[in-house]
Amino acid sequence: MEIPASLHEHGNIDSAALQFENEVTLPSWDSPYSMFLQEILNEEEADSYRDFEYEWMEVDARATHRIDGYPDAIQGDMYLECQLVTNGLYCGDSTGYSNPL
User: Fold this and answer.
1) How many CB atoms lie under 10 A from the CB of residue 28?
2) Is residue 72 within 8 Å of 61, Cβ to Cβ?
3) Euclidean distance between the first and final Cα of the chain, in Å?
4) Could you read off the pLDDT tens digit of each residue along the chain, which spans 101 residues?
5) Rounded to two decimals, what is the model's pTM?
6) Which of 21, 27, 79, 97 has its CA 20 to 30 A from that of 12?
7) What is the distance between the alpha carbons of residues 76 and 59, in angstroms, rounded to a whole number?
């Protein structure tokens, strides 16, 4: 198979430096992984956790790409949506969330 001529012209990608580092990640308050926190923390402790989570995410505003750990959820946790789509429900609108299966 020959490489298309346009690939040589438009397919060049500049190199970029990578920096690997270890970091601690936290589940977002909305994540199913932190649901048990809602049961064991009182309101003041829960507020402190959410404040800490917000400050933690604001420390470094660079784009972050992780191999493991909890994601920085920008538009809420995707756990439920991923589970529904994996099981064949369409989540492009609200119908996937109300399907009784």
Assistant:
1) 20
2) no
3) 46
4) 777 777 767 667 777 888 888 888 888 877 887 878 888 999 999 999 889 888 877 666 666 778 888 777 777 778 888 888 999 989 888 888 886 66
5) 0.51
6) 21
7) 19
Q: For residue 81, give the amino acid letter.
A: E
- The owner of tokens 């990640």 is 25
Inter-CA distances, 40 with 2, 23, 44, 46, Å: 61, 25, 12, 9
Give the residue extent of every domain in the chain: 23-98
AA letter at 29: W
